[in-house]
Amino acid sequence: MGEIALVRVYDPQPSIGQVFLVERLWPRGVRRDSRLTDAWLKDAAPSTELRRWFEHDPEKWAEFRDRYFGELDSRPDAWRPLIQTEPVTLLFSSRDRVHNSAVALRDYVMARTA
Questions:
Q1: What torsion do the CA atoms of 105, 58, 14, 109 make, to the nearest 10 degrees?
Q2: What's the structural domain count of the chain?
Q3: Most buried one in 53, 90, 98, 112, CB count within 10 A?
Q4: Domain extent for 26
């Protein structure tokens, strides 16, 4: 697998390759008809229950990753588009750039395609 870039949806940063929004919910304040993304992979995002449990609490990060990886294991079709093209950019909306589902998804995909 090649490069997977992470870009916060609210930051005016250039993206590389295919651009995927990997959030369960559409980002607030972003028009749905914007040319923001090539595809919205909401099924690759954590379940609503897991997202609400996590609440972006860094102390829950390790357990969140374990639970999320279990969800991804059971839904390979949800994340498979990420490995069919490279490079890719994952768009996320979290303020926390270290403890968010896009970081976990990137790590998961990179580990599965190494």
A1: -10
A2: 1
A3: 90
A4: 4-113
pTM, full prediction: 0.92
Alpha-carbon span 52 to 46, nearest angstrom: 9
Residue-wise pLDDT tens digits, 4-47: 999 999 987 777 889 999 999 999 988 887 778 889 999 999 99
Which strands make up the sheet holding 18-21, listed edge to edge? 4-8, 88-92, 18-21, 39-40
Bridge partner list, 90: 6, 20
Strands (DSSP E) found in the chain: 4-8, 18-21, 39-40, 88-92
User: What's at 53, amino acid-wise?
Assistant: W
Among 46, 57, 2, 1, CA closest to 22? 46
